[in-house]
Amino acid sequence: MPEDTKTKSPHYHLKYKICVSGAAETGHCSADALDKAKELGREIVRHNCVLVTGATTGFPFWAAIGAKEEHGISIGLSPASSEREHVERFKLPVDYMDIIIYTGFDYSGRNLLLTRSADAVVIGCGRIGTLNEFTIAFEDGKPIGVLSGTGGTADVIEDIVKASNRKARIVYDEDPKRLLEKLIALIEEEKIQKE
């Protein structure tokens, strides 16, 4: 065994899974929100991580485009129970995904599985579904990154957290690269504490 792997966790080779949560309909998002989503997807791959989304349109879809442009891995968790239902009933895309897991649990069940399957969650411009994914991650104590300045729920989460009177592992930044670096630091800090 190489010397540098003797002191590492037996799972050191596993990539971090970063969930990107955001609005499927983006009319209320900031003018540069989708560009930031795309750059976020690129940065996830550049940092040797895997993108996980709700296999949807809008902000997460643009993150998936960015991830695939960097030749990364993009996994989607669908609310549907099959590809046909995913496309026909939910009107969701299959593009820019390497794997789609059909949960069959509609949006609320999908949201739970989505956030729990990830090592950390990034919140971008969102609506109520994004807020739902945020609160699940918050309650589960997941590391969370908020891409500030993108609009919607992303720009009110800091106030919500303050009003909750609870500590959380959340970082904020307007720059996708800096945000991801802060988030990975939170993941690694958590791993060290658990070892």
TrEMBL record:
Gene3D superfamilies (alphabetical): 3.40.50.450
Pfam families: LDcluster4
One Gene Ontology cellular component: cytosol
InterPro entries: LDcluster4, LOG_family_nucleotidases
Record protein name field: Protein containing YHS domain protein
